[in-house]
Design goal:
- The structure holds two protein chains of two kinds.
- Chain A contains seven helices and 14 strands.
- Chain A is an alpha/beta fold.
- Chain A has a single domain, classed as 4-Layer Sandwich (Metallo-beta-lactamase, Chain A).
- Chain A starts with a strand and ends in a 5-residue tail after the last strand.
- Chain B is of the alpha/beta class.
- In chain B, a hairpin with a 2-residue loop joins strand 9 and strand 10.
- The longest helix of chain B has 17 residues.
- Classes of the chains: A alpha/beta, B alpha/beta.
- Chains A and B meet through helix 3 of A and loops of B.
- Bound molecules: zinc ion (3 copies).
- The site of one zinc ion has 8 residues of chain A, from helix 2.
Chain lengths: ~300, ~280
């Protein structure tokens, strides 16, 4: 299968000369099992160009089918949806998956994003056939020949990580998440940064450890692990409650899970291309020094990776 | 006064090498009055970069004050608010003017995009700075220090967007983004708002050909912008809010076509500029 990156940025799109190489669009990855419909993970602004490219195929005359897995509904993961051209052509079938809410239907969350006065086109007037699927952590389901598994992450309002197995290959998408050490992020708003390294109440420490163990188990042996590495260690110390990780956190999970390739992802908005190059080099050096068996890449717009069997 | 462009793009940010010159950030303009007052118009992604530039000033110390004018609450005009660094610094004070039936309704509109489903901020109340939200009464002047501001609604698809006129010491700057006029062009009230402006910044999303084929009307072509500028007798027309698909060379062509159209319609005395991110304009 093929994995292609359409948006690699976290938080907010950042156009400009300093991001030309890695790209300034927010989160969107296309997973394409051999001969199958696209499985899209997240709908940041990167999905706009993906949508345009799909319109050159069966989607152009309403014969397309796509599945969109949403990690969570923070802006940078859904703000491209209304610009996804296949939505506007009758006949296209689009399945949207995201975590079930405690208080409301998933569809209502998406509908409220584009209702008046925020966007000129309400969800109800899109012409494609759109179905919403609510997921609970641990769920496993099929999309064609692909098997999708999910588990929850440590992020405000809770994000989901997904694993897709197809064509004798596997990819895990793990964004957005904080490491599982300093703060439990769920529904409560955390106003000021908790102290990094301070001891947590046992129940919270246990919950975080369990969450991390489930993630490591889901990542086991994956060919590709795409991981939120928005922060440098210093940035993490300042904002541990913002729900993002460092490359070191990603390395630790990659090592324990025995994955084959680690992909740095969800780059900080103000990270210039040169600064991102330096982070990639440093991460590679760490991995080399530790004698780890996996390789490291940094996601950029247009990067396409082939894993397992492909034509 | 001086105007500076922080985001000139419409609808959705458009990153990539082919938008480097004009810029891919969504709508945000700052106006610095001769008196030193700061007025911010619209809060697209350009607002983040304006925010960073303000940190070495009094805004970095929590002693900053600014007026924010919001044309309307479409995404591309509010999506920068949560990334505007000065708004997280206690002590800074902002008064935000926008269009709604009441101030509390306007606040509710902003809250609706900041709830925890969409933003880790949860609510406006978690911003450290003081943000006072006020609904504008169309045509009724608001004073911000030494300047006077008047807002008037323009039709914008199924909704409306406020156009603003800012006046200081006989100089005038008009901001009119996101407008799709009816067949008769601007209303008399709106034309009066534009009248004789030193600078009219106007929605210039499309070529007339694209305007005719795009689904979501409510935007202007360069012809609409040129006609409004001519009818109101403005001195300088600034093109703004380019379609997300337009590359730098497309915008160059848009500007050349607009120039030719102005010249052909008796507007050859009107200066024309295509707004570009980072550029500053003395008014
Ligand atoms: Zn994110
Ligand atoms: Zn997030
Ligand atoms: Zn707009």
């Amino acid at each position: 299968m093929k994995v292609r990156f359409w948006g690699v940025r976290g938080s907010i799109p950042v156009p400009g000369r300093l991001t030309n190489r890695y790209g300034g669009n927010t989160s969107c990855v296309e997973v394409r099992p051999r001969g199958a419909a696209p499985i899209i993970i997240d709908a940041g602004t990167g999905i706009r160009r993906l949508g345009k490219s799909l319109m050159e195929t069966a989607f152009g005359d309403g014969g397309g089918s796509a599945h969109i897995l949403i990690s969570h509904t923070h802006w940078d993961h859904i703000q491209g949806l209304p610009f996804f051209a296949p939505f506007y052509t009758k006949g296209n079938q689009i399945q949207v998956y995201a975590r079930q809410r405690e208080d409301t239907h998933l569809q209502a969350v998406f509908a409220s994003q584009t209702e008046d006065p925020y966007f000129p086109v309400p969800l109800s007037s899109l012409r494609a056939e759109i179905q919403f699927h609510e997921l609970v952590e641990g769920a496993q389901f099929q999309i064609g020949n692909a098997t999708v598994t999910c588990t929850r992450l440590n992020h405000p309002w809770i994000a989901m990580a997904y694993r897709i197995d197809a064509d004798n290959a596997s990819v895990v998408y793990c964004s957005d998440t904080a490491p599982f050490t300093d703060v439990l992020l769920e529904h409560e708003f955390i106003k000021s940064p908790p102290k990094v390294g301070a001891e947590l109440p046992q129940a919270i420490a246990d919950k975080l450890a369990e969450m991390r163990a489930a993630l490591v188990a889901m990542c086991r042996g994956a060919d590709l692990l795409i991981y939120d590495t928005q922060f440098t260690p210093d940035e993490y110390k300042r904002q541990p409650h913002w729900g993002h990780s460092t490359p070191d956190d990603a390395i630790a999970v990659a090592r324990e899970a025995g994955i084959k390739c680690l992909c740095l992802y969800h780059h900080a908005p103000m990270r210039s291309d040169d600064a991102q190059d330096a982070i990639l080099e440093a991460t590679r050096a760490t991995v080399l020094h530790a004698g780890d068996a996996f390789s490291v890449v940094a996601a950029f717009e247009g990067l396409e990776l082939t894993i397992g069997e492909d034509e | 006064m001086k105007a500076r462009f922080w985001g000139v793009r419409g609808s959705v940010p458009a990153p990539g090498p082919d938008t480097n010159r004009y810029g891919g950030n969504t709508s945000c303009v700052s106006v610095r009055t001769a008196n030193g007052e700061l007025i911010i118009i619209d809060m697209g992604t350009g607002l983040m970069h304006l925010g960073h530039s303000l940190l070495p000033t009094e805004f970095g110390k929590g002693q900053g004050k600014a007026t924010i004018l919001l044309s309307h609450a479409h995404w591309d005009h509010i999506q920068g608010l949560g990334f505007f660094a000065p708004v997280f610094i206690p002590g800074n004070q902002f008064v935000l003017f926008g269009h709604a039936k009441s101030s509390s309704m306007l606040e509710g509109i902003l809250e609706g995009q900041m709830n925890p489903n969409f933003s880790p901020l949860y609510t406006l109340k978690n911003l450290g700075a003081a943000v006072e939200v006020r609904a504008v009464v169309p045509g009724e002047p608001v004073t911000a220090g030494s300047v006077q501001i008047i807002g008037r609604p323009n039709p914008h698809g199924s909704t409306t967007a406020l156009a603003f006129r800012i006046e200081e010491a006989g100089r005038s700057f008009v901001y009119a983004s996101d407008v799709g006029y009816g067949d008769g062009g601007p209303t008399p009230e709106v034309l009066a708002l534009y009248q004789g402006a030193d600078v009219l910044l106007h929605d210039c999303t499309y070529t007339p050909e694209h305007q005719a084929t795009r689904r979501n009307r409510g935007f202007s072509s360069y012809e609409d912008a040129a006609l409004a500028a001519i009818a109101a007798g403005v001195k300088h027309l600034v093109m703004f809010h380019y379609d997300q698909d337009y590359t730098d060379s497309d915008v160059d062509s848009l500007a050349a076509a607009c120039r030719a159209y102005l010249d052909a319609r008796g507007g050859s005395a009107i200066r024309l500029t295509a707004a570009a991110e980072g550029e500053e304009l003395e008014i």
